[in-house]
């Protein structure tokens, strides 16, 4: 085993306990040296998992802790960009959860600080590390589907349970920052960036509804994005409905079609008289989070630029901002060129 990496974890919420902490415990090169969260009960639970760590309720104190070799920023999107910038000002490599920021100006500030610090910044679009996603991406790029390609993507989460007021309150607070796509859209935008090989969005149209009139933003959104390479994407995202059907990624091309279904861990390819189904038996999240962490470690070891990183995140921030703009203004919105 090569050297252990001492990390600071800022944010001990659901994503930390459900995904990152188990991945840290499976990776013997990671030592959680610092834990930080303003909620003392969350800190106590986290410290039970990592008893040798030092705990802080203040992020400034946590980021100043000596001997930290990387910071994991696992916070809500409103807090994330400022914490990433504080870590970069200390020349500390960063892994942050998606979205890196909700506003383009904050993303650009992070990119400038990243250049000055000359350290890796990786953004947590973990689904891109799944082997089924890799297979789909490679076939698209190899021309298996032909051109143009149409993508139909559904992202449905956060079932409404009237008895779970804590969960409902948390999701409603998230809707104050934007629609479900403002949060879930980072993954969708990254898939489309990879599938279209960084094609810029030529036009965006979107609409949404509130299933309850008092929700602060539409909780069901549908968007249509046409790309300058001729491809087209139809995106649907929903929160706070009593149940959802399984999400999928459907790909349509003149030479063939495909469907990736995460719940079943399957990727099916079809042509006129052909069908091929690829199945992955391993748990989706375990596989994605472990591969994502291993990629970050590799970038630290070899001083590589992570992907997805800040520039990939910027692409997604611009695309989702265009959709959110269309939801607010109800008019077509052109996508800025990718830097």
UniProtKB/TrEMBL annotation:
Positions of the GFO/IDH/MocA-like oxidoreductase domain: 135-258
InterPro entries documented for this protein: Gfo/Idh/MocA-like_OxRdtase_N, Gfo/Idh/MocA_Oxidoreductases, GFO_IDH_MocA-like_dom, NAD(P)-bd_dom_sf
Domain Gfo/Idh/MocA-like oxidoreductase N-terminal, residue spans: 5-124
Pfam families documented for this protein: GFO_IDH_MocA, GFO_IDH_MocA_C3
Protein's name in the database: Gfo/Idh/MocA family protein
Species for this entry: Paenibacillus solisilvae
């Amino acid at each position: 085993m090569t050297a252990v990496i001492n990390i600071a974890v800022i944010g001990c919420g659901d994503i930390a306990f459900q995904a990152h902490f188990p991945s840290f415990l499976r990776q013997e090169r990671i030592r959680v040296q610092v834990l930080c969260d303003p909620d003392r009960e969350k800190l106590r639970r986290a410290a039970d998992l990592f008893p040798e760590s030092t705990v802080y309720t203040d992020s400034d104190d946590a980021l100043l802790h000596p001997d930290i070799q990387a910071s994991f920023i696992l916070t809500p999107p409103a807090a994330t960009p400022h914490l990433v910038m504080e870590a970069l000002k200390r020349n500390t490599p960063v892994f942050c959860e998606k979205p890196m920021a909700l506003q383009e100006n904050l993303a650009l500030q992070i990119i400038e600080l990243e250049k000055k610090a000359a350290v890796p910044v990786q953004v947590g679009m973990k689904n891109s590390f799944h082997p089924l996603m890799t297979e789909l991406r490679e076939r698209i790029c190899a021309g298996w589907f032909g051109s143009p390609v149409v993508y139909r993507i559904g992202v449905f989460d956060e079932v409404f349970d009237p008895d779970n007021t804590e969960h409902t309150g948390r999701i409603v607070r998230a809707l104050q920052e934007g629609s479900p796509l403002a949060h879930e859209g980072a993954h969708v935008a990254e898939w489309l960036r990879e599938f279209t090989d960084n094609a810029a969005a030529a036009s965006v149209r979107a609409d949404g509804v509130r299933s309850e009139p008092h929700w602060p933003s539409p909780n069901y959104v549908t968007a249509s994005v046409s790309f300058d390479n001729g491809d087209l994407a139809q995106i649907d995202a929903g929160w706070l409905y009593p149940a959802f059907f399984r999400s999928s990624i459907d790909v349509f091309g003149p030479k063939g079609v495909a469907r990736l279904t995460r719940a079943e861990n399957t990727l099916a390819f079809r042509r006129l008289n052909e069908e091929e189904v690829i199945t992955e038996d391993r748990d989706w999240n375990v596989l994605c989070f472990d591969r994502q962490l291993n990629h970050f470690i590799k970038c630290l070891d070899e001083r590589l630029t992570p992907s997805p990183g800040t520039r990939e995140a910027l692409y997604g921030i611009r695309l989702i901002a265009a959709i959110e703009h269309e939801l607010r203004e109800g008019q077509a919105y052109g996508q800025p060129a990718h830097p």
